[in-house]
């Protein structure tokens, strides 16, 4: 039953995270694509936005796909953890935990599931098992250390763009031209 539950978690969480990455990279599933994601990354203080959009999208799409397939464990879960950690440190920073308040409830949940899958291994019903693939055990702690350093340096220390306050006397909050 443990292998079946791992496969179910891998398929659902990995598949959904991969879909979220596809929204960023390709604009699939009504996503913003690279153009919209680049602007969003810039607004979070992640510059250049296009580079960070590619990194975030690839971490989600690649990490989610590898996780769903149970291939090259722990690389897939590390990709998910990286993307979710950066989202928590930037897009959800300073907000209450609950998603209804704009908080990091969902990325924290996804990262926890990915960490559990990484620790558990992909299980019997995985491509790693079918192909006899086993990556070295030191990749997981090294990957987590690298993620922590990158998230601290570029996420926690990132300066979001300040939105200019509307000037008084303009209708509808229109900005006065500079």
UniProtKB/TrEMBL annotation:
It is a multi-pass membrane protein. Keywords: Cell membrane, Membrane, Transmembrane, Transmembrane helix. GO terms for cellular component: plasma membrane. It is found in: Cell membrane. It comes from the Bacteria. Belongs to the DoxX family. This is DoxX.
């Amino acid at each position: 039953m443990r292998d079946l539950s791992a496969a179910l978690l891998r398929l659902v969480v990995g598949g959904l995270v991969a879909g979220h990455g596809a929204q960023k990279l390709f604009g699939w599933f009504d996503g913003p694509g690279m153009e919209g994601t680049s602007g969003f990354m810039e607004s979070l203080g992640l510059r250049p936005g296009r580079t960070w959009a590619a990194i975030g999208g690839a971490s989600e799409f690649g990490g989610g796909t590898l996780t769903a397939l149970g291939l090259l464990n722990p690389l897939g879960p590390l990709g998910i953890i990286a993307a979710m950690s950066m989202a928590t440190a930037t897009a959800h920073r300073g907000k209450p935990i609950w998603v209804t308040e704009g908080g990091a409830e969902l990325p924290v949940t996804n990262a926890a599931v990915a960490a559990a899958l990484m620790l558990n291994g992909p299980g019997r019903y995985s491509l790693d098992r079918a192909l006899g693939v086993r990556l070295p055990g030191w990749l997981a702690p090294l990957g987590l250390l690298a993620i922590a350093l990158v998230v601290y340096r570029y996420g926690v220390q990132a300066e979001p763009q300040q939105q200019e306050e509307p000037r008084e006397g303009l209708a509808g909050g229109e900005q006065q031209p500079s």
